[in-house]
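quick one, two chains, predict together pls
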Amino acid sequence: KAGVTQTPRYLIKTRGQQVTLSCSPISGHRSVSWYQQTPGQGLQFLFEYFSETQRNKGNFPGRFSGRQFSNSRSEMNVSTLELGDSALYLCASSYTGTSGRSSYEQYFGPGTRLTVT
Amino acid sequence: AQKITQTQPGMFVQEKEAVTLDCTYDTSDQSYGLFWYKQPSSGEMIFLIYQGSYDEQNATEGRYSLNFQKARKSANLVISASQLGDSAMYFCATWSGATNKLIFGTGTLLAVQP
């Protein structure tokens, strides 16, 4: 079974630009979560999507947004990039049962390393 | 609110020796889970081991074991017979069932020396 894939793996953008990152979950997984990892703040939860709906959201400004498609693939978008947005962005997928409850077993992708100059 | 504390920013261990990475947690949930992830320099988070709060026995996965002491709210990771490939960042985390998210500690950088 293929793992979680993220594209692109590396990205360099300029302040003020916007960026879109993509995540393809493991086949059969319908929940996709996004995390930001920085040296200063560590690993922080951005949001979780399930069945094309944002189900949970972390404490990030509105410049950070996301969406999920019917095939469970997810994208996250950051508008008006700031230097502080430079980070490793990790996507994780998990299985969700018919009750809508997601498994705690999160499978992570390799991440997208974003550098803002 | 849940919180994970890892007090060791970095650790050294000799190859083939055992090493313990510390983790304490704080949660108001009655039922919770504790995790350890390994993150090599490539960036990917690799799941190592899981302990449920109601599991009476300590979890083990190959060379990894989790020393779970509920009363002390600690969930230390023990790596036996360290290998050079174990050099990486190690994160302790807990799962928030209410918000479907992992809450991570700050991590411990482990360096295995030959």
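The interface with chain B takes residues 31, 33, 35, 42-43, 45, 48, 50, 55-56, 58, 88, 90, 92, 101-102, 104-111, 113 of chain A (CB under 8 Å).
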